[in-house]
Task: structure prediction
Amino acid sequence: MLKAAVQHIGIVACSAEGAGLCYRTICAEGSQLLGPHAHPEITMHTPSLAEYVECLDGGDWPGVGDLMLVSAKKLAQAGADFLICPDNTIHQALPYIVERSLLPWLHIADAVAADAAARGFRRIGITGTRWLVDSETYPEKFAARGLEYLRPNDEERDETSRIIMDELVYGVFKPESVAYFQKVIERMKAEGCDAVVLGCTEIPLIIDDTNSALPTLDSTRLLARAALRRAVRS
Result:
């Protein structure tokens, strides 16, 4: 039987594929901590992805934060105890809203950096949308743990971002796009990286340890597992 003390997880979702993978991971792996078929209570909310993209294209980070805060308020009303966001890019808006949020948040890059440090990695390649890889979301968290990092070059940023936004968020997985990500990761390995963060929550749908030249840091599943630990630790 599910323990009464287990906390209710609120998911502030952005794109469907990444949020779906995070949700499924919490449900599938909950039994490892709570027993057969058990997982924490979960509530998820998302506005239309188009609303987020409009803000992202305009560089309107306060606007992104306002959308996240709408979800946060609805999840608080639904009884959630804390929040996660299975979208790396929009974490850049957290500073605009964290003090106004009714509930605490887990940060996806904290979960990834903690795992990287625990596994002994030293130089991490960063993949994701151009919005993400241009930002300090991962560099700040890596630097706090003494980890080095490598960003994609300009051409790689444009093409990986296109693949994510034009294909992966729609659930379209093309062999040539997988090959492109593999090529980027191979270059990062050649430049001294010993791991790569899959810094878009859709990337784990096409890249994992079986087809990557570097060990992968799966941001989607690492966030889900951090949420599970938080929910059970209560």
Notes: Residues 61-77 form the longest helix (17 residues). The first strand starts at residue 9 and ends at 12.
